[in-house]
Design a protein that fits this description.
Blueprint (H helix, E strand, L loop, with lengths): L24 H17 L23 E4 L2 E4 L10 H11 L3 E3 L13 E4 L2 E6 L8 H8 L3 E5 L12 E3 L4 E4 L6 H10 L2 E4 L2 H5 L6 E3 L2 E4 L4 H9 L3 E4 L3 H4 L37
Bound molecules: arginine (ARG).
Length: 281
């Protein structure tokens, strides 16, 4: 996570951003601090990236890159306003002993904001920000399968505004934000989806951080809370409205570093021995 010392709405690169809306930095600091405290309370360890003057969106570390098994795929941002963030992100990952890799020239992808692991694959959003052609190279670099999902609502321009893995069976899903192929992919992948209404998806309910059994959300209407609690989750709502002014919620302010999707890409040689479980008879 990155403290909001230099946060603000200084340009407009998504439909939520309006330069004339002032950010209250004191409130932003308090909200961000509340999020850190809640995540730590839930059992997370938080690492910090140093804020940089002139880079107001560096707080949204979800977009720093995509992590899998100690490897870090650097982001390549669509908008020039965010491109200078990458050097700072790469420096952090280099200093912290991650294996740093880059997408091929000309392929854009905005990191964990557009790539979320679930049941052995990454779902990867594309259109307003990440490129449609990113999933192949991303899969090769992550060593894991990547399934592309087109994001059709420009208000929900990153995948993490429309999808939130809860555990290995359940996820918050906003199918109205996806093309029909994407809906089918998710339908086949998620055994127990919790489908968000339009109001819930536009309140960024899917932009939540899950730490163990705690779901930290920017908003949670009663019907959603009841279902999450029935599934055994503790729900904590954190007011992050200063960050919503820039089009980001709780999850955008974080980047999971402990992602470990096992490699499913054949490396050549002998086929793996049959595990004897779940095989068709
Ligand atoms: N202002 C930032 C942008 O438009 C917000 C990023 C939100 N990040 C996310 N992972 N959804 O790029």
């Amino acid at each position: 996570m990155c403290p909001p010392e230099h946060f603000g709405v200084l340009y407009e690169i998504n439909p939520w951003m309006h330069r004339e809306v002032a950010v209250d930095l004191g409130r932003a600091r308090d909200q961000w601090g509340g999020l850190v405290a809640t995540l730590v309370e839930a059992g997370a360890e938080v690492e910090l990236l140093e804020p940089q003057p002139g880079l107001p969106d560096l707080v949204f570390t979800a977009n720093a890159g995509t992590v899998n098994n100690g490897r870090y795929v650097a982001s390549r941002f669509r908008h020039p306003n965010r491109q200078p963030e990458v050097d700072h992100d790469v420096a952090w990952f280099t200093d912290h002993s991650f294996e740093v890799v880059e997408l091929p020239e000309g392929i854009g992808h905005e990191g964990a904001g557009d790539a979320l692991p679930f049941r052995g694959v990454f779902l990867s959003g594309y259109r307003s920000r990440s490129d449609a052609g990113a999933h192949g190279p991303l899969s090769a670099l992550l060593g894991a399968p990547v399934r592309p999902i087109e994001l059709v609502d420009e208000r929900l321009y990153h995948l993490d505004l429309t999808f939130c893995p809860l555990d290995d069976r359940r996820a918050l899903v906003a199918p109205d934000a996806w093309d029909s192929y994407g809906r089918k992919v998710v339908e086949a992948l998620v055994p127990e989806p919790l489908v968000l209404t339009d109001d819930e998806m536009l309140a960024f309910c899917a932009n939540s951080v899950v730490v163990g059994g705690t779901v930290v959300m920017p908003a949670c209407p009663p019907r959603l809370g009841r279902q999450l609690e029935a599934w055994g989750f503790d729900v904590v709502v954190i007011d992050v409205d200063e960050f919503l002014k820039a089009g980001g919620g709780c999850r955008c302010l974080t980047l999971a570093l402990d992602v470990a999707v096992p490699s499913a890409i054949p490396t050549g040689g002998a086929p793996p021995p049959s595990s004897g479980t779940g095989a068709a008879r």
